[in-house]
């Protein structure tokens, strides 16, 4: 970077080393508290209570995208940019009743792939896994990109060095501790993020009151306050649909269902969604402050760290560093663990080694975590300038799975061929919309086409599924 970093190298290294050692030590310690078998490694003994269950949902969903992308949307699209990202909380809230249904129908299942395979057959399962793997790699990439951007913007570290540090830390304690390490560190990371974000917002708006920010935007950027702005409305609806696709299909959230006690599942998803909603509202408002004050940023995805550091000084940069470092590690560990478990159970155990021992399955999961971390580093080695482009591409794919999953959980007559056609047609139309119209409409088009195909095919050829097959 040509700009001077906001943190002195000594302070930056102190924060990196201190919190890297802390997360790894806690992850290893929590991992040692389990039974040591594969199921305990993957699902923490299926005994997470309300506090850990809610905290791991908030921490896993409060991603580097939330901290970096929400301010970017607020800065570029205004008020709707801030509100639209908060609609991603709908995914957690609307998944709550589905989570209860999943736990009831599949009390001993391990992955989201188990449901698709048993409900719709192996062809649908194969398509679902392809969508999941593309999404997982895309999501891992956004977190790695965010890690590089963070350390470069705040400390002057090379982009690749920051990426390597954050991925290495998350990979290390996830390998050793599994789900127990992920849930335990998520609990502390969620508390750290929420507390520090509120602190930053209070201090920023203490210097520039909301009335002052509003007056400046009204005078210089009135279009950014327009709640009927077509782009803003499109972004808002796309965010809500996209979040449903991400959460409904991905094993990160299914693994939380299987790992939590039945009595806490519904409440943890509701509480987690409502608590998470505050995160993009707080960070997105920083983007509005930057716009109102005319603060220049070298890249739009650096709005939050640059603005907080400029307005609050070096210690403000340190606070932002901790927020984003916690959000990145808390999301990376969840993605690594859940994706590795999906591959270990659905590919390694189901297809390659159906007679693998418990110890071999656990070792396979650990090895896959390492390989995923290495793959993410290689994919992100060339620098990307925007998190939005990488993230929204996957929306066209994951949104096509919403209705096959929802219908498959509640609708006995849901047709397996309809589910296959819905995922394929939704993904294709969504990708066409992404390139031909606008990235923000990809998820909407995908979900709409998928719903139409799923409903029409099931009406035309209803099936009668035996729910006991899922048990």
Automatic annotation (TrEMBL):
Membrane topology: Multi-pass membrane protein
MF (Gene Ontology): urea transmembrane transporter activity
Gene3D superfamilies xrefs: Sodium/glucose cotransporter (1.20.1730.10)
Tagged with keyword Repeat: no
PROSITE patterns: NA_SOLUT_SYMP_1, NA_SOLUT_SYMP_3
The entry's keywords: Membrane, Transmembrane, Transmembrane helix, Transport
Transmembrane domains' residue ranges: 6-31, 43-62, 82-102, 123-151, 157-176, 188-208, 228-248, 269-291, 303-328, 367-384, 390-411, 418-437, 443-460
Subcellular location: Membrane
InterPro entries in the record: DUR, Na/Glc_symporter_sf, Na/solute_symporter, Na/solute_symporter_CS
Keyword Transport attributed: yes
GO cellular component terms listed in the entry, alphabetical order: membrane
Primary localization class, coarse: membrane
Family, similarity comment: Belongs to the sodium:solute symporter (SSF) (TC 2.A.21) family.
Name recorded for this polypeptide: Urea transporter
Annotated organism of origin: Aphanocapsa feldmannii 277cV
